[in-house]
Design a protein that fits this description.
CATH architecture of one domain: Alpha Horseshoe
CATH topology of one domain: Serine Threonine Protein Phosphatase 5, Tetratricopeptide repeat
Number of strands: 6
Bound molecules: zinc ion
Structural class: mainly alpha
Strand content: under 5%
């Protein structure tokens, strides 16, 4: 079904029919009308139909589609309205696929065309030969807002295709994590089984769609979904193993660890993060023993040792504070959820442009504040998300990043003082293998500390987060009109440091501080356009795994 549409799409893009050449080739009148539509030329369409009124009711010779199909595919509302006035059919099907113009419009996410076709008499629940509805097609092609529009316009989401798949099955199979989140939120059951006994989780697993699998594993139904078996008696974990999707397999195993995995986790952490933590502690305490038993009695003065002690005390205080302070989770529920639903309703009412300016998180059900990111570890959106630190074992965000910076600064003083004391010892007392080893160890730490402190100082001075710095090309607000990097929050070194230092309070008072700051500074108070509204995605960094080119209704279940 959809494979056919993709072929047509290619043709629409690649074969720009030259009208003069077409005349010469004795193309049919409908071919000429189609050529006019592809060139977005109402004048040409009118000219063709003046001479050949029958063109309005014919089919093009290659795809056997009506003129309305082409308008729907190309999103040409103006010509479609004109065609309707001329009496051209709006609901005829392409015989080979059973698809109406409304189906074609859904492959491209043309909400305006869908609305017009519905006004012109198309059925919102029209089915093609594979029993696929417009809603299912919109879900397949990840047109999240169109999916919402169709459901709000009362599309019947209980209609199953000929493999008994729902829109949620398809979105999961295609790895469309935002559409999955929305459909699930709108009430489509995640435990529905299709003709092969596959749940949406089975299909996402079979495709190695990491984002969707993560979404289901984070849901409250995770345990029940993991127990579901398909007709061959396989759970999602079995499918992951069979298909050799190692990453997905690990994700599932981590959600439902066996006893020996739990034991390993106990010592190493879920992602091995405790190894670094343990290394840090063991290394530190070995060094303290060395410092106070060997170095301090032999070299250095009172103030040197007090300074060393103070630097270490500061480091530990900041380490613990960064580790236990809540990172700056974006509030959910209540007002936030109401705003989220308002944005969705705006889209459903057809105000797509307005709605697409609001970045939504379909997992947290919030309008995401600027500079925030959905954190996979916290399972929540985090204000001014910086990074997840395995060392500190916490996410660094608006509320605790400054403690992380101080931790590194004190740490650098501590490690470089250790290295200095080792040098003093070797010069004054003489050679000692253990001290040489400690010196090497701490020279490495000093180099590492200098690099890390330098990098983060640079970020603070330029008012950037690590995430923004690494992914700057993905954020519309970090670009100027011609797409060059431009940081709207950079207000000079002094102001940037003040902003960094007071961020926890700022965000607590107003989670949308940076959104409002940005909008206030924009000349026309609107973010630059982004193609296909990626701003609507929960997270620009999410991996959307799953090929867009393998949609073939039926025969694609996890078998
Ligand atoms: Zn979120």
């Amino acid at each position: 079904m959809s494979a056919a549409v993709e072929d047509l799409t290619d043709q629409a893009e690649m074969t720009t029919l030259d009208p003069a050449a077409a005349w010469q080739q004795h193309a049919s009148p409908t071919d000429l009308l189609t050529a006019g539509i592809k060139q977005d030329s109402l004048g040409m369409c009118e000219a063709v139909c003046l001479q050949h009124p029958e063109a309005l009711h014919g089919r093009d010779s290659t795809d056997q589609a009506t003129p309305a199909h082409w308008c729907a595919l190309l999103g040409n509302v103006g010509i479609l309205e004109w065609l309707a006035k001329q009496g051209s059919p709006m609901t005829d099907v392409v015989v080979s696929s059973g698809m109406q113009p409304i189906h074609w419009a859904c492959t491209r996410g043309h909400t305006e065309v869908v609305k017009l076709l519905l006004r012109l008499g198309a059925s919102i629940d029209a089915i093609d030969i594979k029993h696929t509805t417009p809603l299912v097609i919109a879900a397949q092609y990840d047109h999240t807002l169109l999916v919402f529009y169709l459901i709000k316009a009362r599309a019947d989401h209980t209609i199953l295709d000929d493999c008994r798949d729902t829109a949620l099955h398809w979105a999961a199979y295609k790895g469309n994590v935002h559409t999955v989140g929305l459909l699930h939120y709108l009430g489509l059951a995640a435990d529905t089984l299709d003709a092969f006994g596959s749940s949406p989780l089975h299909l996402a697993t079979a495709q190695g769609a990491v984002g969707v699998v993560e979404y289901f594993l984070e849901s409250t139904e995770a345990d029940a979904l993991l127990d579901l078996q398909d007709q061959k008696g396989r759970t999602a974990l079995d499918v992951a193993r069979e298909r050799n999707h190692v990453h997905v397999q690990r994700l599932i195993e981590r959600t439902k660890p066996r006893w020996h995995q739990r034991l390993i986790e106990c010592f190493m952490g879920k992602a091995g993060e405790k190894v670094m933590f343990i290394f840090f502690w063991v290394n530190s305490w070995l060094t303290y023993a060395t410092y106070y038993l060997m170095l301090a009695p032999a070299v250095g003065g009172f103030y040197q040792h007090v300074a060393y002690l103070a630097a270490n005390a500061g480091m530990y205080f900041c380490f613990v504070t960064a580790s236990i302070t809540e990172c700056g989770l974006v509030p959910t529920g209540g007002k936030q959820q109401a705003e989220y639903e308002k944005a969705l309703t705006m889209a459903a009412n057809g105000n797509m442009e307005e709605a697409s300016m609001l970045p939504l998180c379909h997992t947290c059900h919030v309008v995401r504040p600027l500079r925030s990111k959905h954190c996979g570890v916290q399972k929540r959106c985090v204000s001014c998300f910086d990074h997840f630190c395995p060392y500190v074992n916490n996410t660094m965000g608006a509320r605790n990043y400054k403690y992380f910076i101080l931790f590194m600064a004190f740490g650098l003083v501590g490690v470089s003082m250790t290295a200095a004391a080792c040098v003093q010892y070797l010069m004054l007392v003489g050679r000692n293998k253990w001290i040489v080893f400690q010196l090497c160890d701490y020279l490495v730490f000093t180099a590492f500390g200098l690099t890390m402190n330098g990098y983060h100082a640079h970020l603070v001075l330029h008012n950037l987060t690590t995430n923004e710095h690494i992914n700057k090309s993905r954020y519309h607000y970090l670009k100027d009109d011609v797409g060059r990097f431009r940081n709207p929050f950079d207000a000079g070194y002094v102001n940037n440091v003040i902003d960094f230092w007071t961020r926890a309070r700022t965000i607590e008072a107003n989670p949308y501080h940076y959104t409002q700051l940005y909008q206030g500074r924009q000349p026309d108070a609107r973010p630059p356009e982004t193609p296909a509204s990626p701003s609507l995605s929960c997270d620009e960094d999410d991996e959307l795994i799953g090929s867009k080119n393998d949609v073939e209704a039926g025969g694609r279940a996890a078998n």
